[in-house]
């Protein structure tokens, strides 16, 4: 029986299992007309999602039959790991058509991660003027505002009135497909403010544009980090962020939709890195996925060996009281989970700049107190459990003390490790999890077995 709620949810999302099945059936039958009928009404994001769901052979057959169907909007929505595969299958004329209506920032986003041959193929497909703009953007550092800005914008002299602006917009000029502000510039083309289209349309023609400028106006340098710009857009509720060169002249803009997309990608990347899976996606093949995950599994193996070496120091203690082997994993597991909780909060706070040098010590003290209080609470529980389970009150005291020590250290490590890595310019999401787990395992085993050897034997 079909769940109506599930079916409605999938239809609201845009791609249903039925659509995917119908497209694949049309591909198997070689029915190009049916493919056109199924895909043409769909949003580019939905088509990209469908392409990502099917395997490489099905994608190749689909593109062979659906000639001319792929456009720039679909390419820009695709997972970047798939773009090169798709672009390789497009004829030069198809590629040129696909890129024709894209904004410059979308073209740069398509090009920057491609191989050299495919990058050249995309650039060759552009008009000469568009190619110059894209190549200029590619000359900026990878994570800079200049790399991610779009060059399409609307400028106006600062002395214009509302009527001048309206007449200009209605004249035979090339305008961006979507824009929210007119940027006012002085005679040297330096940005001095901007006016929203809504304020232009709601004021008299004689009103000077200078009288309608937004108080939130601020500019960003082409070399400034795009993450910093995106966070500023989010923080100050900006719609458009003008990007300026060394002379203060406006050369592009970053809009709120691009900023939010970038922040979403950064958040997704942090989550994947915390799990040690790099930037993998479901569209990656087995070899690529294995290669991405192997390095951190290897690091994890080394840290596990380190924890095992700590255990080996207490072989005689464990042999003298087997109950220790039963309870050891509990101490380590609780510490690992507590450390991961602090770590996740810290990495996200660093990414959003909520955790700064001005409040880091307050946050460290908080996490230490949280760890200690949780340690005391679970120490009481495990003290009772250890006493009743093995009829050994002192064993309950040992595991209770070890629990307090490990959860306190877990809180400190969870906040301290990513802060230290960030201070040294290392992405805290990249390896913090492995190091925090190592600390909690080593400290947990050492505290538990060390106390046991002193108090029980």
UniProtKB/TrEMBL annotation:
Compartment annotation: Cell membrane; Membrane
A Pfam family reported for this protein in Swiss-Prot or TrEMBL: CBS
Cross-referenced CDD domains = CBS_pair_Mg_transporter
Give UniProt keywords alphabetically. CBS domain, Cell membrane, Magnesium, Membrane, Metal-binding, Transmembrane, Transmembrane helix, Transport
Ranges for domain CBS come to 212-269
**Keyword check for Phosphoprotein:** no
| UniProt GO MF annotations | magnesium ion transmembrane transporter activity; metal ion binding; transferase activity
Q: Which SMART domains match?
A: CBS (SM00116), MgtE_N (SM00924)
One GO CC annotation: plasma membrane
Q: What is its main location?
A: membrane
Keyword presence, Transmembrane helix: yes
Transmembrane stretches, start-end: 294-314, 320-347, 368-390, 396-421, 433-456
Q: How does it sit in the membrane?
A: Multi-pass membrane protein
* Classification via NCBIfam families: mgtE
PANTHER family attached here? MAGNESIUM TRANSPORTER MGTE
Quaternary structure? Homodimer.
Into which family does the record put it?
Answer: Belongs to the SLC41A transporter family.
General function of this protein: Acts as a magnesium transporter.
Put simply, this protein is called: Magnesium transporter MgtE
